[in-house]
Amino acid sequence: MSAFVRAFLSIDIEDHVLLSRVFQIQQKLDIQAAKMKMVEPDNIHFTMRFFGDVSITSINQIRDCLKEIKITPFEIKIVGVGAFPNRRKPRVIWIGATDNSQLVIDLKLRVDELLTRIGYKTEKEKFTPHATIARVRSIKDSNRLLGNLEELANEPVGDMTVSSISMKKSTLTPSGPIYETLWII
Protein backbone atom coordinates (compact mmCIF):
# COMPACT_ATOMS: atom_id res chain seq x y z
CA MET A 1 0.00 0.00 0.00
CA SER A 2 1.40 3.45 -0.88
CA ALA A 3 1.98 6.08 1.77
CA PHE A 4 -1.19 7.93 0.72
CA VAL A 5 -4.66 6.65 -0.09
CA ARG A 6 -7.84 8.28 -1.35
CA ALA A 7 -10.24 7.73 1.55
CA PHE A 8 -13.71 8.39 2.89
CA LEU A 9 -16.01 7.37 5.74
CA SER A 10 -19.27 5.68 4.80
CA ILE A 11 -22.37 3.92 5.97
CA ASP A 12 -22.47 0.88 3.73
CA ILE A 13 -25.58 -0.56 2.12
CA GLU A 14 -25.00 -4.30 2.38
CA ASP A 15 -28.51 -5.72 2.00
CA HIS A 16 -28.64 -7.37 -1.45
CA VAL A 17 -32.42 -6.98 -1.67
CA LEU A 18 -32.03 -3.25 -1.07
CA LEU A 19 -29.22 -3.00 -3.62
CA SER A 20 -31.40 -4.87 -6.12
CA ARG A 21 -34.14 -2.29 -5.55
CA VAL A 22 -31.61 0.51 -6.11
CA PHE A 23 -30.61 -1.14 -9.40
CA GLN A 24 -34.30 -1.17 -10.43
CA ILE A 25 -34.48 2.56 -9.71
CA GLN A 26 -31.33 3.18 -11.73
CA GLN A 27 -33.07 1.46 -14.65
CA LYS A 28 -35.90 4.02 -14.35
CA LEU A 29 -33.52 6.94 -14.88
CA ASP A 30 -34.06 8.44 -18.33
CA ILE A 31 -30.83 7.87 -20.22
CA GLN A 32 -32.39 9.50 -23.29
CA ALA A 33 -32.62 12.80 -21.37
CA ALA A 34 -29.05 12.76 -20.06
CA LYS A 35 -25.80 10.88 -20.44
CA MET A 36 -25.20 9.25 -17.05
CA LYS A 37 -22.69 6.98 -15.39
CA MET A 38 -24.47 4.63 -13.00
CA VAL A 39 -22.76 3.78 -9.73
CA GLU A 40 -22.13 0.05 -9.43
CA PRO A 41 -24.62 -1.35 -6.90
CA ASP A 42 -21.81 -2.77 -4.72
CA ASN A 43 -20.29 0.74 -4.52
CA ILE A 44 -23.45 2.52 -3.33
CA HIS A 45 -23.10 3.95 0.18
CA PHE A 46 -23.90 6.98 2.33
CA THR A 47 -20.75 9.14 2.48
CA MET A 48 -20.14 10.55 5.94
CA ARG A 49 -16.87 12.34 5.19
CA PHE A 50 -14.59 12.50 2.15
CA PHE A 51 -10.91 12.99 2.97
CA GLY A 52 -9.27 12.80 -0.43
CA ASP A 53 -5.62 11.72 -0.45
CA VAL A 54 -4.45 11.12 3.12
CA SER A 55 -1.48 9.35 4.67
CA ILE A 56 -1.73 5.93 6.27
CA THR A 57 -0.67 7.64 9.50
CA SER A 58 -3.70 9.96 9.20
CA ILE A 59 -6.01 7.00 8.52
CA ASN A 60 -4.79 5.43 11.77
CA GLN A 61 -5.20 8.72 13.67
CA ILE A 62 -8.78 9.01 12.37
CA ARG A 63 -9.53 5.45 13.51
CA ASP A 64 -8.12 6.13 16.97
CA CYS A 65 -10.04 9.41 17.19
CA LEU A 66 -13.37 7.86 16.21
CA LYS A 67 -13.04 4.76 18.42
CA GLU A 68 -15.14 6.39 21.10
CA ILE A 69 -18.20 6.44 18.83
CA LYS A 70 -20.62 3.74 19.88
CA ILE A 71 -23.49 3.32 17.45
CA THR A 72 -26.71 1.95 18.83
CA PRO A 73 -28.19 0.34 15.70
CA PHE A 74 -31.12 2.23 14.19
CA GLU A 75 -33.36 1.88 11.15
CA ILE A 76 -33.58 4.38 8.32
CA LYS A 77 -36.06 4.44 5.50
CA ILE A 78 -34.66 5.19 2.07
CA VAL A 79 -37.16 6.96 -0.14
CA GLY A 80 -36.93 9.17 -3.17
CA VAL A 81 -34.50 10.27 -5.83
CA GLY A 82 -32.89 13.68 -5.51
CA ALA A 83 -30.10 15.57 -7.22
CA PHE A 84 -27.21 17.92 -6.48
CA PRO A 85 -26.98 20.77 -6.97
CA ASN A 86 -30.67 20.59 -7.97
CA ARG A 87 -33.09 18.72 -10.24
CA ARG A 88 -32.91 21.34 -13.00
CA LYS A 89 -29.14 20.99 -13.47
CA PRO A 90 -28.17 17.73 -11.80
CA ARG A 91 -24.58 16.56 -11.60
CA VAL A 92 -25.22 13.86 -9.00
CA ILE A 93 -28.39 11.76 -8.66
CA TRP A 94 -29.01 10.15 -5.29
CA ILE A 95 -31.40 8.27 -3.03
CA GLY A 96 -32.09 9.74 0.38
CA ALA A 97 -32.75 8.72 3.96
CA THR A 98 -36.07 9.83 5.45
CA ASP A 99 -37.22 8.17 8.70
CA ASN A 100 -34.51 8.69 11.32
CA SER A 101 -32.39 10.75 8.92
CA GLN A 102 -31.72 13.07 11.87
CA LEU A 103 -29.87 10.19 13.56
CA VAL A 104 -27.57 9.99 10.51
CA ILE A 105 -27.09 13.77 10.66
CA ASP A 106 -26.31 13.57 14.39
CA LEU A 107 -23.78 10.80 13.72
CA LYS A 108 -22.15 12.95 11.03
CA LEU A 109 -21.97 15.90 13.44
CA ARG A 110 -20.35 13.66 16.08
CA VAL A 111 -17.78 12.43 13.54
CA ASP A 112 -16.97 16.03 12.54
CA GLU A 113 -16.74 17.11 16.19
CA LEU A 114 -14.25 14.35 17.00
CA LEU A 115 -12.20 15.01 13.86
CA THR A 116 -11.63 18.63 14.94
CA ARG A 117 -9.49 17.20 17.77
CA ILE A 118 -6.93 16.03 15.21
CA GLY A 119 -7.03 19.13 13.03
CA TYR A 120 -9.86 18.54 10.56
CA LYS A 121 -12.23 21.45 10.00
CA THR A 122 -15.98 20.98 10.25
CA GLU A 123 -17.50 20.80 6.77
CA LYS A 124 -19.44 23.96 5.94
CA GLU A 125 -22.05 22.51 3.59
CA LYS A 126 -25.34 21.31 5.01
CA PHE A 127 -25.21 17.53 5.24
CA THR A 128 -27.98 15.64 3.43
CA PRO A 129 -27.95 11.87 4.12
CA HIS A 130 -27.81 10.41 0.62
CA ALA A 131 -26.27 7.66 -1.48
CA THR A 132 -25.14 8.55 -5.02
CA ILE A 133 -26.65 6.26 -7.66
CA ALA A 134 -25.60 8.10 -10.86
CA ARG A 135 -23.42 10.94 -12.10
CA VAL A 136 -24.69 13.13 -14.94
CA ARG A 137 -22.11 13.63 -17.69
CA SER A 138 -24.25 15.84 -19.94
CA ILE A 139 -27.90 16.81 -20.28
CA LYS A 140 -29.65 16.32 -23.63
CA ASP A 141 -33.21 17.34 -22.63
CA SER A 142 -33.43 19.23 -19.33
CA ASN A 143 -37.25 19.32 -19.18
CA ARG A 144 -37.52 15.59 -19.80
CA LEU A 145 -34.84 14.88 -17.17
CA LEU A 146 -36.56 17.17 -14.66
CA GLY A 147 -39.84 15.32 -15.26
CA ASN A 148 -38.11 11.96 -14.79
CA LEU A 149 -36.53 13.03 -11.51
CA GLU A 150 -39.82 14.48 -10.26
CA GLU A 151 -41.57 11.16 -11.06
CA LEU A 152 -38.97 9.36 -8.90
CA ALA A 153 -38.94 11.94 -6.07
CA ASN A 154 -41.01 9.72 -3.75
CA GLU A 155 -39.93 6.34 -5.09
CA PRO A 156 -39.71 3.86 -2.20
CA VAL A 157 -36.36 2.07 -1.87
CA GLY A 158 -36.51 0.23 1.45
CA ASP A 159 -35.35 0.11 5.05
CA MET A 160 -31.88 -0.55 6.40
CA THR A 161 -30.15 -0.79 9.74
CA VAL A 162 -27.29 1.58 10.48
CA SER A 163 -24.87 -0.06 12.91
CA SER A 164 -21.37 0.99 11.81
CA ILE A 165 -19.18 3.38 9.85
CA SER A 166 -16.48 2.14 7.45
CA MET A 167 -13.24 3.75 6.37
CA LYS A 168 -12.89 3.08 2.67
CA LYS A 169 -9.92 3.25 0.36
CA SER A 170 -10.89 4.36 -3.14
CA THR A 171 -8.70 3.38 -6.09
CA LEU A 172 -9.70 5.17 -9.28
CA THR A 173 -9.59 3.10 -12.46
CA PRO A 174 -10.77 3.79 -16.04
CA SER A 175 -13.79 1.52 -15.46
CA GLY A 176 -14.71 3.18 -12.14
CA PRO A 177 -13.58 3.28 -8.53
CA ILE A 178 -12.68 0.18 -6.55
CA TYR A 179 -13.48 0.40 -2.84
CA GLU A 180 -11.74 -1.50 -0.11
CA THR A 181 -12.78 -1.42 3.55
CA LEU A 182 -9.81 -0.48 5.74
CA TRP A 183 -11.64 -0.62 9.08
CA ILE A 184 -15.10 -0.46 10.64
CA ILE A 185 -16.30 1.22 13.83
Written overview of the protein:
- The chain is an alpha+beta fold and 185 residues long.
- The protein has four helices and nine strands, in the order E-H-E-E-H-E-E-H-E-H-E-E-E.
- The strands form two sheets. It has a five-stranded antiparallel beta sheet with strand order 2-6-5-4-7. A four-stranded antiparallel beta sheet has the order 3-1-8-9, with helices on one face.
- A hairpin with a 7-residue loop joins strand 4 and strand 5 (92-97).
- The longest helix is centred in the middle third of the chain and has 16 residues, at 101-116.
- The protein starts with a strand and ends with a strand.
- The mean pLDDT is 95.
| Fraction of residues in H or I helices | 25-40%
CATH architecture: Alpha-Beta Complex
Largest sheet, strands/sense/barrel:
5 strands, antiparallel
Q: Number of domains in the coordinates?
A: 1
The strand count comes to: 9
**Class computed from helices, strands and strand pairing:** alpha+beta
How would you briefly describe this protein structure?
Helices cover 27% and strands 39% of the residues.
Task: Name some characteristics of this structure.
single chain, about 180 residues, five-stranded antiparallel beta sheet, four-stranded antiparallel beta sheet, 9 strands
Sequence-ordered SSE layout with sheet pairings:
Layout: E1 4-12, H1 16-28, E2 34-38, E3 45-55, H2 56-66, E4 74-84, E5 92-97, H3 101-116, E6 130-139, H4 142-151, E7 156-162, E8 166-171, E9 178-184
